[in-house]
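User: Okay, second chain of the day. Same drill as before: sequence in, structure tokens out.
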Amino acid sequence: MRWDDDEHASVGTPARVMQYEAPNLGSDDGYGVWRIDDTDNSFATQPFRIKYARQDVLLSVMVAFDLPLSENEGPPSPAVILKFELLYAPVLENGFEFQASPDGCPAAIHEFRIPPKALLGLHSYCPVHFDAFHSVLVDVSVHITLLRAGSRKAPMKVPSVPYTTTDQVTGESIDGSTQALDQVVSTDLKQVMLVKALLEARDTLLVELQNLGNAINQAIDLTEFTSTMNDIKLFDSFLQANQVDADADAEVSGQGKPQNGLERINGRLDFRSDRLLQNLSKDDVIKVFNLSGDQVLYLWNTFLNFHRDNKTQILKFLRDAWTKDRRAEWSIWMVYSKVEMPHHYINGGFDESSHHVVHKRGSSLWKLTDDPAQIAAMRAELHRRSIAQMRINNRSIQDMQIFGDPSGVPIVIMERVINAPRRTYSENSYMRNLDIMGSATSCTVLSSESGNKPSSTSAAQNGRDLKIVVFVHGFQGHHLDLRLVRNQWLLIDPKIEFLMSEVNEEKTSGDFREMGLRLAHEVISFVKKKMDKASRSGRLRDIKLSFVGHSIGNIIIRTALAESVMEPYLRFLHTYVSLSGPHLGYLYSSNSLFNSGLWLLKKLKGTQCIHQLTLTDDPDIRNTFFYTLCKQKTLENFKHIILLSSPQDGYVPYHSARIESCRSASMDYTKKGKAFLEMLNECLDQIRAPTTEHRVFIRCDINFNTASYGKNLNTFIGRAAHIEFLESDIFARFIMWSCPDLFQ
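Assistant: Same drill. Structure tokens below.
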């Protein structure tokens, strides 16, 4: 722990360690106890053995740090940095026992910033997950207050007016000092601000303590404290000497405002006003300082005792509050909008004789500058520039992986598609007899559905849900490619069972039908195994089967769902997340360099899946694999569909990843253009299908910070953004925590 300021050389020192539950030193996983390193004033938890599998390690410890203010300083103005290190230490054999080496090396670091506004009082959940290469979550709660330094023990009773206490107590967190007050002859602004800060810290801690008690239904009796915390009596005793003069001046002015300028709010003195404190003598300011310091210390020790008895419930409450605040906290990098299902490309009712009519319609709907990818990129870049000029100054703990370089964080534009019309199947018009369906429920309203869900008690009686998520890699990919998205999903719902598909590794150059069939059998085998295991441990109430795909992995998923062996499992489909998937193929790819690469793969290597992606696997476009796939019902059984795309991704056409039209297709009046519109409408009809009462359909544009890539070939051909979906998890964090109900 340290100040986020070069001028402050002091660091936080561990002052108190509370081990709530004794570690099991006799177990195979424990290799020592916690320790404090005096050389760098750091605290290290007990070492534990890594199993390279999912494991829970109960640390159950609270450590209190003191971070002193420098002399002659007022309230804390710089921020505070919390630094967490994941240490790796080899296991040493000591006789018949094994011990962890004391010389551990840092494997990963995760830092957080506590802004100045929070230093007067904060109780917050702080998830520590280090980095993308270590699947670790440390559940941490941070509790902060401002204490008066120099004391040795807590007051035995509630501090009250008049002030008579002379005991000194060592407190945790940010410490103010009486030395600063003693070194001046008269009160100045810094001392006044320090007293005000202590009064604010006292009031904040009192409110937070009451809120925590109410939240977990554990009453805290603070009646004695609140009855003795009488600011009016305190300041009246200090101002009594001047009361006669003040009353005389007030009678002359007739406005209830003494000549010394003491402001009144609703007839009462404002005890935090600078004027009131500056009208006190030096001795009176020191008395107020000591009294308020003792009051804060009393509340702080009350909280520590309360936390010791209710640590689990407090952590759960703070975590739930943190989860609810994610949407607002990360809204700096997210742009939300609601759009209706676009109508302009649902105009497939033309024939060769009406070519000129369609040309007129298409040209009126698309302008020469209407390139959705460019518009999305410009929109995100403008937002990024505004962030660079933004001054972020809130009270929440700031994750330095995000807040360390705010302008370098991906921009997420989230469009929720609502009022999706379902067209009738007519030869002449796709726009005839529109059936306007209900609006897709927004993420913020999804929680209202919980009222229709059984309570936790009845759920336990009726059985449990089996939640399975299948992750499918892309072209020439690895089964762990999507591990970062998986890790974020596990943070939201640790109870999910996940399958990292391996059956198509080194086999992604063949026929999609073969890849899809292999995936279908792999999924069925995994689901059956998990169903049997869940049934043995209790009644299985429901199954939720979700899929996440990257690149052509999305086509493999849709092909697998079209297999007849998957039909019994379609009713379990829950959430589908597509990361840059070419759902409409490469008919209108505008990346000439990438198209040249596709041509070489087709001509030189005869890659079958590339022929299928470009719809050249059959002379008749309506007999191609992709055209047939779009007619099969591969999307309509999902309850939630989230399509992720990036205008910077040159490997997958922007419109194909979003399942929407493009300018080239709208201006194409050939058989190819008409077939494309038919494919598009078939996909959208599945999303409009009334198979789910409240289907959530979201398109997310991810705009990465390309400045960090530099100028190279990967950036030029658009590969960098395509791979960034696998190497970054911040965009997944934003989306998942903004709509957590979609992933539970």
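The chain has a mean pLDDT of 77.

User: Thanks, on to the next one.
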